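If you are new to this repository, start here. Below is one unmodified record pulled from the training split, so you can see the exact layout before writing a loader.
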Amino acid sequence: MTKELSTQNQPNRSTGRISAVDAFKFGLSILVVIIHLKPFPGIDPLFRPILRLAVPLFFIISSFFFFKKQLMLGDLRDKISHLERFVFRNGALYLFWTVVLLVPTARLWGWFDDGLLNGALTVLKNFLFSGTFRASWFLLATIIGMVIVVVASRYFSNRIMLLIACAIYAICCLMSNYADASLVSPHLGPLKSFFGVSYNRFWVAIFWIFVGKLLAEHASELSLVPTSKLLSSLAVGFFALYLEYAFILSRSLGSIDDCYFMLPAVAVPLFILVLRLNVGLPSGIAEFFRVASTVTYCLHFTLKHMLQHLFEFLAISMPPSSLFIIDLLVCWGVALVILRLRKRAGFHLLNYAC
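And here is the target side for that same chain:
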């Protein structure tokens, strides 16, 4: 989703492994839409843990390719420049969609209900610290989390970083899926006062970005792991994830299901397996997947509210599954328009949209 993943395409077909990642990101963006629109309420609970893999894998993808490039840079100045470019590109993406979606977002949250000045200050505060349009927290969390991991890595060993990252992730899990547990709920107030909504902020990004960093640093060793072992690990990970899910449901431990302790057990082998795929897609299709995944993530949630208001105004009853399909089609249509226009004179700002 973020703009770290760059490719050098062949004339007619994109690099196979990069194409696989682009197609994978496209699929993940659909999972994110399913999370927020709940188009299939009858079977939605069955797939909740799988759906919650989408955002962690987006973090891992961005981090993996960022640190893979960092490892090839020997000079500190080059590494700093690389980080600055990452922050600029993703900051521009965040700003672009904040501006484009400002009116419906402000209307949704009532930012300007208490006056223009109060609204402007609210927009600025949210832009800097929590996010603006719906689901935008991911972009801000990626930027802040990446800076923290890069800077911290200069002062701490990977072992210490891993301990810190795991401790932070444990807190994110406790504050989401285990928030109603008897040992957690009495401490939820102090935790929220310090961490905020940790599972939707840069705190959770720190863990997944560090995971991507480790995968990039150990890519050569991981390439030697037999695929059969990775598939076995993936199967065990899914089994453990659903055991945790069943345990949470049976004890009614929490209603916010963003973070599971067992998500890494699935996300890591799954990502490694995706990297091994060699899918030679035509460059145009791979480019569409790349753009559509970003546009879909940024647009879909706000678009949902806009469509709901439209159908209410028209007195049309729209079932969740139909709203889901319309939402996706509009997002993909916008992606196609951006692809067509962004290289034309006068439309260069569209390059910041994806």
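Two things worth knowing about this chain: The first helix runs from residue 16 to 37. The radius of gyration is 20 Å.
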